Amino acid sequence: MPAARSFAAIALTLAAMDAPAERPPIVVEDAWVRAAPPSAEMLAGFMTLTNRSDRIHVLVAAKSPDFREVSIHRTRIEDGMARMRPVERVELLPGESVVFEPGGLHLMLVGPERPLSPDDEVRLVLHLEDGSQLVTTAVVRHPAGDRP
Amino acid sequence: MDRNPRRLLIVALLIGSGLLGSAAALVLRHEPALELGERTTLLERPRPAPELALTDHRGEPFDRDRLRGSWSLLFFGFTHCPDICPTTLYQAAEVRERLEAAGEAVPQVIFVSVDPMRDTPERLADYVPYFHSSFTGVTGELASLQPLLQSYGVAYGYQERADGEGYDVDHTASLFLVDPRGRLRALFLTPHETRRLVADIAAIMERHS
For a Cys staple, A73 with which of A50, A108, A133, B96, CB 3.0–4.6 Å? Predict the structure, then answer.
């Protein structure tokens, strides 16, 4: 049935054209930097990353023009002790979200280039293993008052 | 072999009265056990603080008398700590606020640095009151800190950072509740849940005030 087949092909093409031209495979939501004392050398950034594509993506690094150094860390509690350890790779599985949150996975933001106050914005650049980059803006704020 | 019946009787009476005494003490002291969170530990024997020769963020001496007269909530950490210390200090501020709003006693919150090489009183003054103006930062030489760390079972260790940005400090992340007589009453293991902390601290303060 060549007619039906070509119709299907046209529908697929249309669907592809209908989609946003550059739909990002990874979506960054609720990126924020926890407000800290003005003298603080170390801050922490949090966000939710969602993989909207159908293949695994891997976050391997983060940078920011607003900080001297950025690294990915995880706070682990072992025997009642808090230990921070660098995280080399954050695997983002298709259709799943990874949450960076206080007491867990976080971006360690070292040496702010200027004093930061609530409502200030900073830029984060997330580097994926395939060489692509995601640029996002994070707002400085106090932790939400709706914690448990 | 002791076969003197009178002596045996006395021994039996002594044992009997001892048992009765304990039973009476149990009845008199019987109160329903507090229902506390699974990460909350209430000490059976409150532990007095050792002598302290530390300095607060105002440069004032901090000795163990500073732990008397009101309840205190202590946390051990360091100001170059990006995550767990601010997380806990923000939580402590929230706990304080909720206790105050509920009309409960409000413990003084004390942040003790386990990184005195970097955490001078001036640095603590810039850092600790940010979370709440009433919070107190405390530092001192490691040797002066040791008795308190040992008494409370606080561990710490320094880890060189791979990125050349100095070192991180691994440290016990529990919260410690001290009664108005300066005795450690309870400790709370991480992860801390604000609602649980508020409920448990209020219950313990009420029972032991």
Answer: A108
Question: Could you say which of A41, A77, A81 has the minimum Cβ distance to residue B80?
Answer: A41
Contact B84 A84 (CB under 8 A): yes
CB–CB contact A42 B82 (8 Å): yes
Is pLDDT above 50 for B160? yes
pTM of this prediction exceeds 0.80: yes
Give chain B's length: 209
Residues of A in contact with B162 (CB under 8 A): 86
Rounded Cα distance, B165 and A86, in Å: 13
Question: Residues B207, B31: contact at Cβ < 8 Å?
Answer: yes
* Confidence band for A7, pLDDT divided at 50, 70 and 90: very low
- Residue B142 CB-half CA count within 13 A: 9
Nearest chain B residue (CA) to A103: B84
DSSP conformation class of B68: B
Asked if residues A64 and A70 have their Cβ atoms less than 8 Å apart, the reply is: yes
Q: What is the value of ipTM here, to two decimals?
A: 0.79
Q: What are phi and psi of A68, to 5 degrees?
A: -65, -35
Chain centroid to CA A108: how far? 13
Inter-residue contact A135 to A147 (CB < 8 Å): no
**pLDDT value of residue A80:** 86
Residues B33-45: pLDDT tens digits? Answer: 889 999 999 999 9
Q: Has residue B10 got a pLDDT over 80?
A: no
Lay out the sheet containing B183-188: strands in order across: B40-48, B183-188, B175-178, B72-77, B108-113, B136-139, B54-56, B61-62
What pLDDT, on a 0 to 100 scale, did the predictor assign at position B30?
A: 60
Percent of chain B with pLDDT over 70: 86
- Copy the structure tokens of residue B39: 């990460």
